[in-house]
Each structure stands twice: as C-alpha cells, then as structure tokens.
From TrEMBL:
Domain GAF residues, every copy: 24-172
Protein name: Transcriptional regulator with GAF, ATPase, and Fis domain
GO molecular function: RNA binding
Gene3D superfamilies assigned: 3.30.450.40
Length: 247
C-alpha cells in the first residue's frame, strides 16, 4: 500500500530538517535509508560512492546481507549500481534471473542473499553521478513511476547529506570526504562492536543507538564513537541518551 501524503511529507521534512541543522552525513544517510523502508517498502538499502582512487566504496547498508551484496558490486566492478554510476541513470532489476548474462556473479550473489528485485538510483552532483542509492526487495517488485521518482528524490537528499557546499569544487570535495567517511566508518565499526558486546545487542541495534543518540543529544556520530572507544562515554550511557525523547 502506497504511503499517505502525510507520511511522505513528514518523512521528507525530517530529512530536510537534518540537512538544515547540518547533521553529519552518516546521520542523513541513515535517515534516507530508513525513508526507503517507510516510503518505498524497501526490505534493504545501500549506498555506494565513487572514491578518488577510481573505485567505489560502500558507505551505508541497512544490514549485513546488503553490505555483502554492495561490497561484491564494489569488488567485482559489476552490478546495477556500477551501471547506474557509469551511465548516470536509474537501473531497474525487477528479476535478477534476467540479468545473469550481463552480471553473472552479482546476480548469483543477489539471489543467494535473498533479494529478488533491486533498483539503483544515481547520486548526482553538477549533473555527474558520484554514487548510487540501491533499494532491495526480497520479493519480486515492480516499482511504479511515482515510486521511482520518489526514490530519485531520496537519492538527491542523500548526496546533499554528504556535501552541502555550492561552489565548483563540490565533486572533488565529496571524493575527499568519502575517504574521511570511510575512516569514520571503520572507527564507528569498532565502537559499534564495543556497544554490541557490552549491552548484548546486535550490531544493527547498536548502530541504531548511535543514530538515535546523535539525533536526541545533538552530538555527531563521530564524536559519540570517539567517546565510546576512548572510554569517555559508557555504552549504557549511550543507550540512555538514545532513549531520551522517546515515548
């Protein structure tokens, strides 16, 4: 069932509020991936970004199976998102079986991970594709044109979350920022592991706690990760902060 206009408006407003408040890019990306589930009924979402070394990197994934499929695209240089970036256009894969000749290894991996449909939408800066927002479904899904336009709007918001600058160096600075983001993600991964093991929760739950604590407490995810790994913030305190403001 398509989302109501109120749900669409509220979800987009929440993302743009993060942009206006200049939340760090990871928080905005998480809001966008969550919105794909809310507005497009996506079962999983991932984001790939072109890096300065000529490859692509996974900078967001909603769960571990998605992260595996996204990493495979990056490593094999094969799959819908790579085509999306190369051609600067949406790539629809409603059925991976129809793409086995084009992307044999990726199609097999996508099926083995439990996904039956995928849509890749370009992240554009200055009319150039610098990454892709990938939306996955565990059942055969044919997205209507209105849903695809909404997916592209979310992709546009995602790239704004990575860079809000307006000068001519935005593309280059996004590439530079991608390397910083990758380092931050490595550090965050360590902090997530600390929280998950200490509190006895899954890594996905621990990541969600960082996002919630950042939103509720007004601190960047990077700062929270640094505080956890340095011992300045206890995992239990992160949990308490992430619950602040919830009903």
């Amino acid at each position: 069932m398509p989302p109501t206009q109120d749900v669409v408006s509220d979800t987009i407003a929440a993302i743009t509020a993060r942009l206006a408040a200049r939340h760090d890019g990871m928080a905005v990306l998480r809001a966008v991936t969550d919105a794909c589930g809310t507005l497009l009924s996506a079962d999983a979402t991932g984001v790939l970004i072109a890096d300065p070394r000529g490859g692509v990197e996974v900078i967001a994934a909603s769960d571990e199976p998605t992260r595996f499929v996204e990493r495979l695209q990056a490593e094999l240089r094969e799959g819908p998102c790579l085509a999306c970036i190369d051609d600067n256009t949406e790539v629809a894969v409603p059925d991976p079986d129809t793409e086995r000749e084009r992307w044999p290894r990726f199609a097999d991996a996508m099926t083995e991970a439990g996904f039956r449909s995928m849509y890749a939408h370009p992240l554009r800066l200055m009319n150039r594709a610098v990454g892709g927002l990938n939306i996955f479904y565990t059942t055969r899904t044919d997205l209507p044109p209105t849903a695809r336009r909404l997916a592209q709007a979310l992709a546009d918001l995602a790239v704004l979350g990575l860079t809000q600058e307006r000068d001519q160096r935005r593309v280059e600075r996004l590439a530079e920022q991608t390397l910083t983001t990758l380092n931050d993600r490595t550090h965050l991964g360590h902090a997530v592991g600390v929280v998950a093991s200490t509190l006895g929760v899954t890594p996905d739950v621990a990541r969600a706690m960082f996002v919630a604590a950042s939103t509720q407490g007004g601190r960047s995810i990077r700062d929270l990760a640094n505080a956890i790994t340095s011992g300045a913030l206890a995992p239990a305190d992160l949990h308490d902060t992430s619950r602040t403001g919830r009903g």
